[in-house]
């Protein structure tokens, strides 16, 4: 689907301030950040390079260099600051901040509140104060965030709801997220030798591990590299409309390659029943390329579901 001139203009206005803060970024990484192809980014850079202030002499044009595959901006003219956010954008950020604040306490909660206050000043509505979450602040979140920021592992005591038993695990956390009013953490689990998702309120105790112990439990390099694909892995094509699938499941995504229509995505081997339900939930916006067994399983499940409505 071709994009509108307004969409392209908005991206061009966003590109220059972003480049000023990320001098020397590669075109491939830039394309990934903005969710377009490298070809489109190159076309955008050519367009920006020809823009400037009235007069249109070399002194009024935007000055940038990108021929070697890396982008630097030396003279942005008047595009040195990001665009002002729209009301919808401000509201979305305030909702996200409210969710973040709900599960935290102490200094980080105060930082979030200060940021909310600054944003609310720009949101001209009668009552900008809303509560969108009833999450209870969890002291474990601070430890999890510290472990992620310092690339350190954790020793945790975890309560398994299925077995009603406590287990001792060493994990290497990578991401904290919220879904269905619960807070979860994605992490590499040493005992399972696989990525696992843990509910934060079921972590009874956690201790930050030393650098040496953290290195010992890190995910093996063979499973984290993007250059050597697992032949037994899962390959998908994800359309632009289903991009949220990639963002919400980064822990199991091993590689992403963008093109004009969407994204070629490689997944690590995961539980097939969950993946079948998830793909069907996107209503055709995600297509399985490999393996054939998964393609057949999804087709069979879709046929069974359809038959129930006849």
UniProtKB/TrEMBL annotation:
Domain WCX residues, every copy: 234-305
Pfam families membership: HTH_PafC, WCX, WYL
InterPro entries: CBASS_pafABC_assoc_protein (IPR051534), PafC-like (IPR028349), PafC_HTH (IPR043839), WCX_dom (IPR057727), WYL_dom (IPR026881)
Residue intervals of the WYL domain: 140-207
Residue intervals of the PafC HTH domain: 8-119
Name under which the protein is recorded: Unannotated protein
């Amino acid at each position: 689907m071709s994009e509108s001139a307004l969409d392209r203009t908005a991206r061009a206005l966003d590109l220059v301030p972003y480049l000023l803060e990320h001098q020397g970024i590669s075109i491939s990484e830039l394309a990934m950040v903005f969710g377009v192809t490298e070809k489109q980014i190159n076309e955008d850079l050519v367009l920006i390079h020809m823009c400037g202030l009235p007069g249109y002499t070399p002194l009024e044009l935007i000055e940038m260099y990108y021929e070697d595959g890396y982008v630097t901006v030396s003279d942005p003219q008047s595009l040195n600051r990001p665009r002002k956010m729209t009301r919808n954008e401000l509201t979305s950020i305030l909702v996200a901040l409210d969710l973040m604040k709900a599960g935290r306490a102490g200094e980080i909660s105060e930082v979030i509140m200060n940021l909310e206050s600054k944003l609310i000043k720009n949101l001209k509505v009668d009552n900008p104060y809303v509560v969108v979450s009833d999450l209870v602040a969890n002291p474990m979140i601070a430890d999890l965030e510290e472990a992620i920021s310092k690339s350190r592992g954790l020793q945790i005591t975890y309560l398994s709801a299925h077995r009603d038993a406590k287990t001792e695990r060493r994990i290497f956390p990578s991401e904290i997220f919220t879904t269905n009013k619960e807070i979860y953490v994605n992490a590499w689990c040493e005992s399972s030798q696989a990525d696992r998702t843990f509910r934060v309120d079921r972590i009874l105790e956690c201790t930050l591990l030393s650098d040496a112990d953290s290195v010992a439990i890190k995910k093996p390099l063979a499973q984290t590299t993007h250059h050597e694909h697992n032949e037994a892995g899962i390959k998908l094509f994800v359309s632009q409309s289903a991009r949220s699938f990639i963002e919400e499941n980064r822990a199991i995504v091993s590689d992403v390659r963008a093109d004009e229509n969407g994204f070629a995505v490689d997944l690590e081997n995961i539980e097939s029943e969950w993946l079948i339900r998830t793909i069907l939930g996107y209503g055709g916006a995600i297509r399985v390329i490999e393996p054939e067994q998964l393609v057949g399983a999804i087709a069979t499940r879709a046929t069974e579901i359809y038959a129930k409505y006849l």
